Amino acid sequence: MKRFDYNAFDSRDAIGNPASVFLTQNEFLSQNDKEILSVNSGFPISCFVDVLNNKAIIDFFAPNGQKETVCFHGTMAVLKMLKDNFGKSIKKIEIKNYQEIELIELENDYFGIKFKNNTKLEIVQNQTLIQEIRNNFRLRDEDFVNVYFNHSTNDIIVETSNSKIVENLSYKIAETKDFLIQNNRRAIMFFSLLDKKTVISKVLYVNLAELEDICCGSANISISKILFEKYKIKNFENIQPYRVKETGKFGGRQKVIYSEKEIILMGHVSKIEDSFQSFVVYSKGLPIF
Hints:
This protein is α+β, with helices and mostly antiparallel strands. The chain has helices spanning about 30-40, 70-85, 125-135, 165, 175-180, 220-230, 245, and strands at about 1-10, 15-25, 45-50, 55-60, 65-70, 90-95, 100-105, 110-115, 120-125, 145-150, 155-160, 185-195, 200-205, 210-215, 235-240, 250-260, 260-270, 275-280, 280-285, 285-289. Helix content is about 25%, strand content about 40%. An 8-stranded mixed β-barrel has the order 1-2-3-4-6-7-8-17. Strands 19-20 form a two-stranded antiparallel ribbon. The radius of gyration is 19 Å and the shape is globular. About 40% of the residues are buried.
C-alpha cells in the first residue's frame, strides 16, 4: 500500500487543504485498519482508493477515525494522485455510498469534478435555534440574513451580509462542538457575498480537533444552490480564509459552476513534497503490503 499527501484547492499563494491518499492496490483493509490510519495521518481527511477496471472507488475517514460519506477536497487530492500514477486511463470515480462522479482534467494541476445536483436545502424556521446561532457566534441582527439545513450533507449554513464576520469568526471550540452534536449536524458554514462573482466562507467541522476546516469543497454545494435560487448566480469563486491573523493569506480558492442538474467544482491541487510512504499495515496479525 502507498500513501501520498496533497494540498487541495490550494490558491498557489497559500496553503490549501491537506489530504492523505492511500492507494490500497486491491489489498483488503478492514474498517478498523482505515480508522487507525486516518487517526495517525494527522490530516483533515484520509482517502482510501481501490482501482478496478479503470474506475477508482473511494472511502473517506476523518482524523478522529469517523467514516465520512463524502469529502470533495479529498476527492480533488485523489484526482491528482490518479493523474500522477495512472495517467489518463481512469475516467470514473465512485464514492462509496454516495454517487459516481466525473473527472474533468484541466491544465497545470487544475482539476474539476462533476456530479449530480441532488442538494436538498431547507430554510430554518426554528427561532430558538436561530437565536442560539446568533448568541454563540455573536451575530448582530443587521448582519444576519438566513439559516439553512442541507439534508444531503447534514450541515447548517448561515448567510450573513457582513464579510468581516466570516473572516474573523468568533467562537468557542467546546461550545460549538456541543452545539453541532446536540443538533446532530456535521458542520456549520458561514458565507457572505463579496460581489456577484465571489463569496467568502468559513466552515466549522465537528470531526476536526480545532473545528476550522481550511478549505471545504462541500460548502460550495449548499452555497451554490442558495446563490442560484436567491441571486441567479451560476458561476462564482469561493475564498476560504484560514488563520488570517497569523499568515495574512487565504486558505484556498475554489471555482464553482452550478446548474439545476449538476455542479462542477474546480481548483488547484499540489503535491506535498517528500510525503510518499510505502509501508506495512498489520491486520489481525497479518501484514498488508
